[in-house]
Amino acid sequence: ENPDQKEKMEKLWKLMETYEPNDPESIQKSFARHLEYSLACTRFNFTMQDAYRAAGLVLRDRLLESLNDTNAYYRKMDVKRGYYLSAEYLIGRHMQNAIANLDLEQPFKEAFHALGMQLEDLFHEEVDPALGNGGLGRLAACFLDSMATLSLPCWGYGIRYSYGMFKQDIQNGRQVEMPDFWIGDGCPFEIPRPDITYPVRLYGEVQEGLNAQGEWCLNWVGGDIVQAMAYDNPIPGFDTYNTNNLRLWRACPTKEFDLDQYSAANFTDAVEARRKAEDLSAVLYPNDASYEGRELRLRQQYFFVSASLQDLLREFIKRPNYKWSELPEKVAVQMNDTHPTIAVAEFMRLLVDVMHVPWDEAWELTTKCLNYTNHTVMPEALEKWPVEMMTRMLPRHVQIIGELNLRWINGLVAKYGDGPIIAALSIFEEGDVKKIRMGNLAIMGSNKVNGVAALHTEIIKKETFPDFYKYCCDTGAPDKIVNMTNGVTPRRWVHCANPALSAIFTKYLGSHEWLTDMTKLKGMLKFKEDPKLHAEWMEMKKTAKKKLAGFLKETLDLEIDQDALIDIQIKRIHEYKRQFMNCLYVIHRYQQLKKMSPAEREKVQKRVVLIGGKAASAYVNAKLIIKLINNVGKVINNDPDTGKLLKLAFVPNYRVSAAEVLIPASDISEHISTAGTEASGTSNMKFVMNGGLIVGTMDGANIEIREECGEDTMFIFGCLEHEVAGIAAKAKEGHYPIDSRLQAVFQAIRNGEFSKGEPEAHAEFCSLVDKLCNTHGAGTWDGDRYLVVHDFPSFVDAQAKVDATYADKAKWCKLSIQAASSMAKFSTDRTISEYADVIWGVKPAPRPMEM
Ligand code: BZD
Questions:
Q1: How many CB atoms lie within 10 A of CB 578?
Q2: Among its keywords, does the record have Transcription regulation (predicted)?
């Protein structure tokens, strides 16, 4: 309005009206400028790390232009927005992905090549941001990539942990956890936003009082206030001008310094209290399967949920003449697992207490805006917080939850009378320690609830939340629970991780359209028997294996035969994922080789078995399994009879960047969870997209991958989900027999063949084996909870079939092409389109190139 101001703005606008140019020379100039003026290096004296940082800033400039213009466009179009709330994002390295998605591969390559640098070397300088545990966190990251690529107005919200997933060191075969202070040198891709902060209250009490309108109300007062400060991470889409945002919150002390405390005696206490506030976002809990009822964890959850909801509501009320009734037309929120489900109560609190929306209307808005994804059927992973703890920390929320539950139970009793279904559906779990069930709160407060693969969604309906499902059906809403089969982004997992394969697809299909429409890959099927393609395909695998060999040499000083079949199992270490069974099989294979004459051995397929993954630090058995794998590997790899034919190695510190090297190189990967335990799995999809075949159980997304790719592309074994209960019941009575080959493996372990000179390890390994065999104490059976003994024989058969099939190179190659070309369903572009259509009602809003 002010003419003076206007003139200044126009001047600035003129100066900034064009984007940073993207020709190689301009990129070089930007690079030199950042080296000198942002990093204070000279152009003649800088390290590769400096070069990486400067290149990162070159990209950041371009990301910011796109992010700002995309935001302006979304505002102008007044679009409905989606918000993904997740305590974890396993984003992995930014640089290569940003270059690809900004369509800068060619000019960047040229620019840096001319300066005597290889892009690959720059990429290696980046530490992996590992703000997640495993599949759930990586899924969130793939989702962000697809939301941007589909030009959907969707943001992610999460926590900017100072320490991400621990680094795994292996010492004497055992896992040792090291802190991952990933942010130590700063990350050139993030944008700190000291101007965007929200207060978050913890503890305190609720008082009756009057609101601004003079009406009776409840006020939450006292306690501690922390500030949540925003750090923005631009997420560029591929083949679109849209760039979305991942906004991560860091906990900071409140800005105001309590003057009373500012006396000589209390000064240090006051500073200490402020420092403590920062603990909130200090560290990611490295537990991926069972929650620990730690108070700090609940604080983290509330902290990021409150800041995110405040932020998205602020965006909503910025709109001129907003009406609360329009909220569901403008906002959809997705809660990633139960971790952010305190959002149900916080949304109510913000609407009722802060925005003065009447209770009933607020509840209607809440249940229209929020949605919940379940990622697990393991009962030990469903979060339940003690009422006592939550009442201390979030007194107002417990009141709100109490009121919601009262109304909910009254309605249920009116419908069903007072029976067991009431206790099952209550948000509160009675018992010695009264608890709040976050799963129940989430389902009640959500518009849609989803599982992550077809089988998993059925299990949720029938076993995890059967009473809710009954209620949904009884109230005419059976489709409140829907399936959203997971996916992965082909940009990172094919194009960036496996450039040779990406080039083959683009060449045979005549364009790179497949990268945004994976159904195009079907066009490869007509070449699946083409010898020319076979040659290129095998060359592609060779290239990937060569890279893997370099990686293994560097990290483990391990030499591998690049003609060997590469067999990989990489995922969190867990009994249900059965790395133990894989290891037992390798021992069996070793024993078979040992029995053979040298001439017989010649005929055996060479194999390199790689197992990698982190164990939760308190998970004793998972850590023992790591030790066993390492010890078995040591024996096998150093045995001159077998060393050339069979290798077993534990890959330390498995992480996104390691996956990018491992996955393209695999011939076979293992997805061998007990049927009904793995909700989906997502690395299975990455492997197949890269032309690897799967040894797997009929579990999670394996079932759907097999459906898409054809039965002949997968080596299936093990019992089926519906058989598990019967097998477990029978096992309780006595036990199914232990296969003689497995007996021999157990015997070798008990004889100490893999624990020579290590009495402690010997006792530990025996305890693992004993547990599996400990089945005869009637009624106490759970030793083989995951049916390792039961499924072992069919696992051995499946592995034999792998060897036999691999012997026919042309057949293998055909199956590999067939499988990789049939993976359209498992692109997160498909998954996210479904979320956008079925759950969020969010539409694409591609922004034009120039605004
Ligand atoms: O989520 C995983 C499931 O185990 C996989 O089957 C599935 O594919 C992916 C994605 O849907 N779950 C997790 O990764 N869970 C966690 O990481 C986690 C983290 C903290 C607390 C509890 C679980």
A1: 28
A2: no
Task: Report which protein residue has its CA nearest ligand 1's atom 12.
Answer: 136
Looking up residue 276, the CATH number of its domain turns out to be: 3.40.50.2000
Tokens read off for 762: 């010997």
512 is an active site residue: no
Catalytic residue among 375, 448, 491, 614: 375
> Residue 401 and residue 438: Cα distance in Å, rounded?
11
Distance 130 CA to ligand 1 centre (A): 15
Q: Which mutation among 89, 283, 375, 460 tests ligand 1's pocket best, with the greatest number of atoms within 8 A of CB?
A: 375
481, 591: one domain: no
Q: Give the Cα separation of 131 and 156 in Å (integer).
A: 13
**Last residue of a domain, which of 485, 506, 524?**
485
Q: Distance between CA 666 and CA 827 in Å, rounded?
A: 20
**Residues 513-531, mean pLDDT to the nearest whole number:** 98
Residues 315 and 419 grouped into a single domain: yes
Rounded Cα distance, 211 and 188, in Å: 45
Q: For the segment 265-305, what is each residue's pLDDT rounded down to a tens digit? A: 677 777 787 788 899 999 999 988 877 779 999 999 999 99
Instruction: Note the pLDDT tens digit of each residue in 588-630.
Output: 999 999 999 999 999 999 999 999 999 999 999 999 999 999 9
Ligand 1 lined by 286 (C-beta under 6 Å): no
Host H or E run for residue 772: helix 759-773
Q: Which of 93, 461, 589, 686 is catalytic?
A: 686
Report if residue 108 sits inside a domain.
no
Same domain, 693 and 580: yes
For residues 271 and 770, which has the higher predicted lDDT (pLDDT)? 770
Beta carbon of 451 within 6 Å of any ligand 1 atom: no
Is the pLDDT score of 16 beyond 90?
no
Q: Mark whether 584 and 442 lie in a shared domain.
A: no
Identified catalytic residue from 60, 138, 577, 847: 577
Model pTM above 0.90: yes
Last residue of some domain: 485, 513, 539?
485
Domain check: are 607 and 744 in the same one? yes
Determine the distance separating the centroid of ligand 1 and the alpha carbon of 330, expressed in angstroms: 29
The per-residue pLDDT for range 382-409, each reduced to its tens digit, is 899 999 999 999 999 999 999 999 999 9
Q: Are 92 and 144 in contact (CB under 8 A)?
A: no
Count of domains observed in the chain: 2
Q: Is 60 known to be catalytic?
A: no
pLDDT for the residue numbered 265: 66
Q: Flag whether 518 is in a domain.
A: no
Range of the domain at 475: 78-93+128-485
Any domain includes 673: yes
C-alpha span between 452 and 467 (Å, rounded) = 20
Query: Residue 210 forms beta bridges with which residues?
Result: 216
Whether 686 is catalytic is yes
